[in-house]
Input
Amino acid sequence: MKKLILLTLLFLNFLNANITQYFPPLEGRIIDQAHLLSNSSQTKLTEILKNHEEETSNQIVVVILNTLNGYEIADYSYQLGRFWGIGQKSKDNGVLLVIAMDEKKLRIEVGYGLEGALTDKTSYEIINYTIKPNFKNNNYEKGIFKAVDEIIQAIKGEYTPKIKNDRKNMNFDSFFAFLYFGIIFVSMIASSISRKLKSQKLYKISKASILSSFFGFFTFAIASGFTSFYLYLAIAITILVFIFNYLTARDVNFDKLAKYDSNSSSNSGSWGGTTGGFGSGRFSSGGGFSGGGGGFGGGGASGGW
Output
């Protein structure tokens, strides 16, 4: 098992090392491989980003690529941010706006220190309601300038959400989340009762309810930051997982199950383990402009046009 884990880690390190060959050199606050921006626009945008960095120490870099060379934009952007070390090391306050022309993909990658201000939801809104409409109409420069402006607004706490979450929606979301936990709790009790009553039907229902509620809540929590249809998606996943688990569940031998539970409880506490941590170094490159060693944890959002 240890050998398998070690081989997996070595393989992942190999993949991360291999992806760096496709990273452009960090030569400024704007990397435009596709020549999407005019010289005057590059100069103007660079000045905006430079002034923001001088005022706040936040580093924002716009990266326009011809292609991702087969990589997912989320992984590419995350690795690129860490490789360049965008943002200050003590603050992790870097942001990347990555645009891949061939794949028509977009990504706002946010450093650890700015995830509270430039949230995943805000990044999603900027991509889908600012960049995407402009890019679809070939208004690339307008889309980039407006996106940078909104990124800066969000960091300053001046961004106005395009999707308004009023108090009713927030209360409903909280109720929905608690409802999932309530179903899981009740299902666990029902599962215990089914074993005492030796009821196959109740056992199948309780087991299917636990699994479906877990997957439904997971979908609800993840999708709420990316789509307005998250509630319908969560309900659909819950129903589908419940039906699948209920129909595929086999009858159980309650006597054997009780014996297994008894043996498991008697053996608990006899096994122990250790945990370890892994980290990765950060790099920066470039001439007149370079990253300050900032860190990234995968915050942000992706999209396309």
